[in-house]
Design a protein that fits this description.
Elements lengths: L19 H4 L17 E6 L3 H5 L1 H12 L5 E6 L4 H7 L5 E7 L2 E7 L2 E6 L4 H8 L6 E4 L8 E2 L4 E2 L4 H7 L7 H15 L4 E5 L6 H13 L10 H8 E2 L3 E4 L7 H11 L7 E3 L4 E5 L15 E3 L3 H25 L4 H5 L2 H15 L11 H12 L8 H5 L2 H18 L5 H16 L15 H9 L4 H9 L2 H9 L2 H16 L2 H9 L1
Parallel strand pairs: 1-2, 1-6, 2-5, 3-12, 6-9, 9-10, 13-14
Antiparallel strand pairs: 3-4, 7-8, 11-13
The chain binds D-mannonic acid.
The site of D-mannonic acid has 9 residues, from α11 and α15.
């Protein structure tokens, strides 16, 4: 742009783009604590979304800074589209994280993400980097969908043609394919042990990932080196981890606000809440950053933390998202601020989820729930109900169906959890919200659910058809008469009255 000094490409607002050359313009307190040029790559990360940039990279950079280590730069491979990688590369992989809450705002540029690429364009590079001796960690934030598993059984989606094609030897396009080929290349290179750490909201994410990799390796005879599975068992650990930070997709307004604070334009800007938590199973054979210095908790068993986080936080998040979307509310903050929905979530958690939990030491549920609801209500975050509601067919299991199963086994009737499942299905099938406006929720099963609920018949018949989705409900819930009745009641209620009224009644 005319008037800009040479070498400083201007962004859309006439401001120079954030990159290594403009870093020096930033006030010292906003600059990264580590020099990007000093960092080498020790972590390959699959997925380059906003959550990753506001969570793992933040913990890693802080830990490396406090430990005085320069070997924990990250290569992040975006999976679904080249966009994140392109934006990052245009900025020398520098980007800012802005933490926002009422009356609070802090922003900082991070330097630890050192390379960004789109796995779809460069699968061999991903594989090659996993095989490098300097890399001792592979981490993942690829969302529930990235695991290509049957959510009800936790086994590989064996009929997925993309997985089969990867197993047969093409440059891998799936996450599991990249991982398995990367481990195969690592074994061939003699590069030694590595830890593969899932940072996605799944039950037993480490054990699940280990099983899926192993099933992929066995999928097609001769598809992978003989003995690979045994080598993985000896040399690769899959620590489970529980991640928590609310990080909505950044909007153009977010990018503008960050630019105003930075004085340079950051098109890869991330906005998040101030809160952040990470609990990791301490199961590493290879070196790792000293994340504990940055506040991560390394524990022998994450399961109590995981149940609490998935069932209380994510379960409530999804509940607000489906009921809020049906009610025509735009954001989770609006839904959490709606007294009828808040009351519903409190009853759901305290009466149905609570009896299924074994709390981690020192955690008190009422306080945890208050904090979660306060975080959801953060008006500075524009997390849309539609974003949280997306892909519910993969989220229901970890977030709500565990509660349903445990309550049924206790002889109780989880009617509020069943109502949320009904709200999920109604939001997918109905096509309009309670205000008569179009409602489109993204979900791999959207068309099937619409078909199942669209056929004529009673709510009981709809519930029975819905429970035929065994990949969501499993054989057990699929055949449970009590759950079918509760689900039918929920479907019936939501077809007869607006979601907010139904929630208010169910909260009573
Ligand atoms: C959300 C999560 O989009 C969603 O499904 O429920 O991303 C949630 O914000 C995080 O798990 C919070 O840690």
């Amino acid at each position: 742009m005319a008037g800009e000094p040479a070498g400083l490409p201007a962004g859309a607002h006439g401001l120079a783009l954030l990159d290594r050359s403009t870093l020096a313009r930033l006030p010292a307190r906003l600059r990264p604590s580590l020099a990007p040029s000093a960092l080498s790559v020790g972590i390959v990360h699959l997925g380059a979304g906003a959550f990753h940039r506001a969570h793992l990279v933040v913990y890693t950079e802080r830990a490396a800074e406090l430990a005085g280590e320069e070997r924990w730069g990250l290569l992040s491979a975006s999976q679904r589209s080249p966009r994140a990688a392109e934006l990052l590369r245009a900025q020398d992989c520098l980007y800012s994280v802005r933490a926002v809450a009422p009356g609070r705002c802090s922003i900082k540029v991070l330097a630890s993400l050192r390379e960004a690429l789109f796995a779809g364009e460069a699968p061999e590079r991903v594989v090659g980097r996993i095989a490098e001796g300097a890399v001792s960690l592979v981490t993942l934030t690829v969302t529930e969908k990235g695991y290509r598993h049957d959510p009800a059984t936790g086994h590989l989606a064996r009929k997925d043609p993309e997985l089969l094609a990867d197993a047969l030897g093409r440059p891998p396009r799936t996450v599991l394919g990249q991982l398995a080929r990367g481990l195969e290349a690592r074994r061939r290179a003699g590069a030694g042990p590595v830890a593969v750490c899932s940072c996605d909201n799944l039950v037993g994410n480490g054990a699940l990932l280990r099983r899926l990799v192993s099933e992929l390796v066995a999928l097609a005879p001769g598809g992978f080196d003989a003995g690979l599975d045994g080598w993985i068992r000896e040399n690769v650990t899959f620590p489970s981890s529980v991640v928590d930070r609310i990080v909505p997709a950044a909007t153009p307004a977010d990018v503008e606000e960050s630019a105003a604070l930075l004085g340079v334009e950051d098109r890869a800007a991330v906005v998040a809440e101030p809160f952040s938590q990470w609990v990791i199973e301490d199961d590493f054979l290879a070196p790792r950053p000293r994340w504990e210095l940055a506040g991560a908790e390394l524990v022998t068993d994450v399961s109590a933390h995981e149940e609490l986080k998935l069932r209380v936080l994510n379960g409530s998040h999804s509940s607000l998202a489906y009921l809020g979307a049906l009610a025509g509310l735009g954001t989770v903050a609006e839904a959490a601020g709606e007294p009828r929905l808040e009351a519903f979530v409190r009853r759901l958690v305290l009466e149905e989820v609570a009896p299924t939990l074994s709390l981690p030491p020192g955690v008190e549920l009422a306080g945890y729930l208050d904090a979660v609801l306060e975080r959801f209500a953060n008006p500075a975050l524009r997390y849309t109900c539609l974003q949280v509601a997306s892909d519910g067919s993969l989220k229901l299991g970890p977030r709500l169906l565990g509660t349903v199963r445990d309550r049924l086994a206790q002889g109780a009737e989880p009617r509020r959890a069943a109502l949320v499942v009904a709200a999920w299905a109604t939001a997918l099938a109905r096509g309009v919200d309670d205000l008569g406006r179009p409602l489109v929720v993204l979900d791999p099963l959207a068309a099937r659910v619409a078909e199942l609920l669209g056929s004529p018949g009673s709510a009981g018949a709809s519930a029975a058809r819905l429970l035929g989705l065994l990949e969501v409900f499993g054989e057990d819930l699929g055949e449970d008469d009590r759950f079918r009745r509760l689900l039918a009641d929920g479907l019936e209620a939501l077809s007869a009255a607006p979601a907010l009224e139904v929630a208010a009644l169910a909260a009573g």
